[in-house]
Automatic annotation (TrEMBL):
<feature type="signal peptide">
    <location>
        <begin position="1"/>
        <end position="17"/>
    </location>
</feature>
<feature type="region of interest" description="Disordered">
    <location>
        <begin position="60"/>
        <end position="88"/>
    </location>
</feature>
<keyword id="KW-0732">Signal</keyword>
<feature type="compositionally biased region" description="Pro residues">
    <location>
        <begin position="73"/>
        <end position="88"/>
    </location>
</feature>
<feature type="compositionally biased region" description="Low complexity">
    <location>
        <begin position="63"/>
        <end position="72"/>
    </location>
</feature>
<protein>
    <recommendedName>
        <fullName>Lipoprotein</fullName>
    </recommendedName>
</protein>
Amino acid sequence: MNTARTLLLLAAGLVGACAGKSNPPAENPDGPKACTKEAKVCPDGSTVGRIGPNCEFAPCPVPEGDAPASDAPAPPPGEPQNAAPPSP
């Protein structure tokens, strides 16, 4: 009876010790990171995916001729853009 109890406790201890070792390894913060496969639809209809270490969306392409001439912010949607003054 005493031997059976000892063997039972030993087996339970081994099972418990092995169960604690089944945790997956911690994520390596320095290793490569996979971004989700989402896409953002740009105003011109093209799509861009996520890039970089923070998985941010890539910037939308700027069509030629629509690039701002200066670093001034673009007017909000619906606001008229500054046009060239009329010819005299």
